[in-house]
Structure to design on (140 residues):
């Protein structure tokens, strides 16, 4: 599924479209260059999910946990991971296979650890205010 967003205010609509597209899938990976808006889009997605916590990039902690009425959302940022063992050290399996929503930035750094089923979100910068989104279902 492809869509284009022309402003920050349109991110909520894109987040709704992603959740509809995902159906029952719980693991989402986000790809895009630095500054493409991955964390900004994740904030909009969390708002659609009903998260009331402050959503921020877990760049240094690797994972943040946000509460919602139907469970929790785990938000990962593997940008600064130096070794795949760091993902093992935080117990990635307990998160990825918990049945809760997992939002993963920089998934290429832990590609071999991704579950068999996930939703891939690609974000491309078209201009300072415009982004192209591509949503796809991936089954290894």
């Amino acid at each position: 599924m492809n869509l284009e967003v022309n402003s920050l205010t349109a991110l909520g609509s894109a987040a709704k479209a992603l959740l509809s597209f995902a159906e029952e899938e719980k693991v989402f990976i986000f790809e895009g260059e630095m500054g493409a808006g991955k964390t900004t889009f994740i904030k909009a997605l969390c708002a659609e999910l009903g998260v009331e916590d402050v959503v921020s990039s877990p760049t240094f902690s690797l994972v943040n946990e946000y509460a919602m009425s139907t469970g929790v959302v785990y938000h990962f940022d593997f940008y600064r991971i130096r070794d795949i063992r760091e993902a093992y050290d935080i117990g990635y399996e307990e998160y990825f296979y918990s049945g809760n929503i997992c939002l993963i930035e920089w998934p290429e750094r832990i590609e071999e650890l991704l579950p068999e089923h996930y939703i891939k979100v690609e974000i491309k910068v078209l201009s300072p205010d415009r982004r192209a989104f591509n949503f796809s279902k991936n089954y290894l």
